[in-house]
Design goal:
The complex is a heterodimer of chains A (380) and B (389). Chain A has 380 residues and is an alpha+beta fold. In chain A, 52% of the residues lie in helices and 15% in strands. The longest helix of chain A is centred in the middle third of the chain and has 38 residues. With 389 residues, chain B is α+β, with helices and mostly antiparallel strands. Chain B has 12 helices and 8 strands. In chain B, the strands form 2 sheets. A 4-stranded mixed sheet of chain B has the order 1-4-5-8. Classes of the chains: A alpha+beta (380), B alpha+beta (389). The interface between A and B is large, with 40 and 44 residues.
Chain lengths: 380, 389
């Protein structure tokens, strides 16, 4: 695996104007509208996120990032959404950005027919359509490549678990064995309100919503008919995009927790001096700093590997994801510990980052899953 | 610029691979890849083999005989050699004192000292640490008292690597007592054949002779051998230490060691060892990412100041863990240790041919988190200079 792209892209990276503008727009908006205090109301609302923020995102063009220019989008590659995912972590955004804007939008762009695109894309851009990816069936936090759900004669049967934002999505993209086409893994669009769809909604640890879904003969729409395994390939690519996006989210969480904890070490006094004057705590803070640097570098490498479609990308991406999961959990635990008693309260943002770290470290494949994937011997 | 820089570095990578295949003295490569000790003659031949391509001082400016390498080329150079199991690039002349002399030295000093460094004809030692000045280097007590055109130097240097082979030693000495310990230090070049210099071997726990105590008793050193102004030694010392740390990520060496460990593990059906290797492999890839990111940041001038310390801490601790796992994987061959076999004349008492060398190197590398600023000092540096704690 060569990391040559690191230098190339880093040297050129500063000139990527669109990404810089996006970053600026996100920072400005969230600073004014998405403080920890402002977020409380969203946590308690019906969809467990802010409808207002969601429509603001649409107005700011964030929901159309990946869409082609003729649909009013910016035609950004999956990796250009990194600043948005970083903000999802840094500001603990609750809206369905990963599920709808990145993953499902990606699948639609890869697999939808022309007529499906013309119907779906404008509604994705204006925020009136929220999609959720219904793929997970077991409790094991992996990125499954097969499933038990079945599609027969135009309808779906089976169960999905813990579908992120499944509680509020308008439509699901569901993975299932297509019995009509020899049982190959395929993707289907299903309306959330279609007869035969049952939904058990619940909150995740970080306050976002999810749902367990059952399909008992629910009407489902295929994507563009294609030979071979186009859907399975799109889904595998989507899982890689999820892993890389979650690295960015983890980086956002780490960045904020490190800044918050460092500040606390400087202002919190015990025994008549700042607690940060203790070398034991300094060295633990340094470990958090080093992890932040490593996560940043690893995430950039994974983004570039994904973007360049390199042969060795699966290994770099799973490596980045495994490393990042470990790092974000460590940083979050240390942040709680160094804040002392206040760190475990619901009132302080630190505990919310801690809970988000656990959720983001589990979605679409946790550390153990990606470590096993990373560890497959290269030369065997 | 960046594509061009990359292209030259990749071209160099190819040339180095070709050099290792075709021009590397095979007796030396066999010993170094088995972590056996090299003698002075072998090290000199190694350095001269590198210099036959101009690489020993490739990072020097061309006016002093270098190739004016970019930071990236310098990194790739060390990465590739380490990956191939090549010997240590003896740093004292080419990496440490050479750049100090061409940056701070007089014309006469450049003329006298640089050419024999380039050709590996003079061996240098580093006179920094003292019994009372290790991590706290500014606590050094060796004195140099002015006597006409000379300094009279008295004191003791410690952990002086390969002083037994050295022709010259660059040395930090105290030329005056000032308020702050970092003041009043000067940088002297001392001829090891001077009267009053004595070298006492110190055997390390790998049962080999790498380091020494160097005693300086009324040693007369010409004032002309002082580099920089009197009392400016600390600035030169820091310049040198930063050079020492910046390129110290040892990525290639770690890859070489991890591949060896993987080869040993492939012959065993041990899930725990396998899991340990995967964790090490992940740390190695993280180090690779952060190394290249640091290079990119250096080349675009957006460093935070903690990079060198981060790389040193991560690389040295990981390398120790790789060697520890390798010794474990060797099983009983990991506790068999016949020091007589560490120089390449006879195979080790148990295990593969490199078993003895691996055990030795594992022992010697306990020093990696101690020298050049211990892991704790590196963490202090980040805490203070980057985090403001």
């Amino acid at each position: 695996v060569t990391l040559r792209f690191s230098i190339d892209a880093a040297a050129a990276g500063g000139t990527d104007e669109m990404v810089a503008l996006l970053r600026e727009s996100i920072e400005r908006y969230t600073a004014d509208n998405y403080s920890f205090e402002q977020r409380w109301a969203a946590l308690r609302s019906a969809h467990r996120y802010s409808e207002k923020a969601w429509s603001d995102y649409a107005a700011l063009g964030w929901l159309a990032l990946r869409l082609p220019e003729d649909s009013g989008g910016l035609a950004a590659r999956a990796t250009a959404t990194a600043p948005l995912m970083e903000a999802v972590g840094a500001k603990l955004l609750l809206e369905p950005i990963l599920a709808s804007v990145i993953l499902c939008t990606g699948l639609v762009l890869k697999r939808a027919s022309a007529s499906q695109r013309s119907e779906i894309l404008p509604r994705l851009a204006d925020g009136s359509l929220r999609l959720a990816l219904a793929h997970q069936e077991s409790l094991q936090a992996g990125a499954p490549t097969s499933c038990a759900c079945e599609y027969r004669r135009g309808v779906l049967y089976g169960n999905k678990v813990a579908v992120l934002h499944g509680d509020c999505a308008d439509q699901f993209i569901v993975s299932a064995k297509n019995i009509d086409a020899g049982g190959k893994l395929s993707l289907f669009l299903v309306d959330a309100t279609a007869p035969g769809v049952a939904c058990r909604a619940f909150p995740l640890l970080d306050g976002r919503g999810a749902a367990n879904l059952s399909f008992a003969g629910a009407a489902a729409q295929s994507f563009e008919p294609a030979a071979l395994d186009a859907d399975a390939e799109a889904l595998a690519e989507c899982m890689q995009e999820a892993a890389v996006a979650l690295c960015s989210e983890a980086f956002g969480v780490i960045r904020v927790l490190n800044a918050t904890t460092l500040q606390y070490l400087k202002v919190r006094k015990q025994f008549g001096k700042a607690i940060g004057s203790n070398q034991a705590l300094q060295h633990r803070m340094v470990e958090m700093y080093m992890l932040e640097q490593e996560v940043r570098a690893f995430t950039l490498s994974a983004q570039r590997a994904l973007q360049a479609g390199e042969d060795g990308r699966a290994r770099i991406i799973s490596g980045a994801r495994a490393f990042t999961c470990g790092a974000v959990r460590h940083v979050a635990a240390e942040a709680v510990q160094m804040h002392g008693g206040i760190g475990i309260t619901d009132e302080l943002d630190v505990s919310h980052y801690y809970r988000r770290a656990q959720v983001l470290g589990t979605l679409f494949g946790n550390r153990d899953f990606h470590l096993a994937r990373f560890g497959v011997p290269r030369h065997s | 610029m960046s594509a061009d820089v990359w292209q030259r570095a990749e071209q160099l990578r190819g040339e180095i691979r070709e050099f290792v295949r075709t021009s590397m003295p095979s007796d030396i490569l066999r010993k170094s890849s088995q972590h056996l000790t090299l003698n002075k003659d072998e090290y000199v031949r190694w350095m001269q083999a590198l210099q036959s391509r101009g690489w020993a001082v490739g990072h020097w400016p061309s006016e002093y005989g270098g190739l004016g390498w970019s930071t990236l080329e310098r990194f790739v150079f060390e990465d590739e050699l380490g990956r191939a199991g090549c010997p240590w690039i003896i740093p004292f002349g080419v990496k440490y004192v050479g750049p100090v002399i061409y940056t701070f030295g007089s014309e006469a000093q450049k003329e006298r000292f640089l050419p024999p460094i380039v050709t590996a004809q003079e061996w240098w030692a580093q006179g920094y640490s003292e019994p009372g000045a290790g991590s706290d280097l500014s606590g050094l007590r060796t004195t140099a008292i002015r006597d006409g055109d000379h300094y009279i130097v008295n004191g003791q240097k410690a952990w002086t690597t390969y002083a037994q082979w050295a022709d010259w030693m660059f040395c930090l000495v105290r030329t005056s007592r000032e308020e702050r310990p970092q003041q009043g230090i000067s940088f002297l070049l001392i001829d090891m054949r001077s009267t009053g210099v004595s070298v006492q071997p110190v055997r390390t726990m790998d049962m080999c002779h790498h380091v020494n105590e160097v005693w300086l008793q009324n040693v007369r050193v010409p004032v002309a051998n002082r580099v920089g102004a009197e009392g400016d030694g600390w600035a030169l010392a820091r310049f040198l230490l930063v050079n020492e740390r910046t390129y110290g990520s040892g990525l290639g060496e770690s890859k070489f060691a991890l591949e060896r460990l993987e080869a040993l593990a492939a012959k065993q059906n041990n899930a725990a060892l396998r899991a340990r290797i995967v964790e090490l492999d992940l740390r190695l890839l993280a180090l690779e990412c952060v190394s290249y990111q640091t290079l990119a940041d250096m080349m675009t001038g957006v460093e935070t100041g903690g990079e060198a310390s981060l790389l040193k801490v991560r690389a040295s601790e990981m390398y120790q863990d790789i060697l520890e796992a390798t010794v474990d994987a060797l099983g009983y061959a990991g506790i068999a240790f016949d020091a007589e076999t560490l120089h390449g004349e006879a195979p080790p008492p148990l295990g593969p041919d490199d078993a003895g060398g691996i055990v030795r190197y594992h022992l010697y590398n306990r020093a990696a988190t101690i020298y050049g600023g211990s892991a704790e000092i590196q963490r202090n540096i980040i805490a203070k200079s980057v985090l403001g704690l």
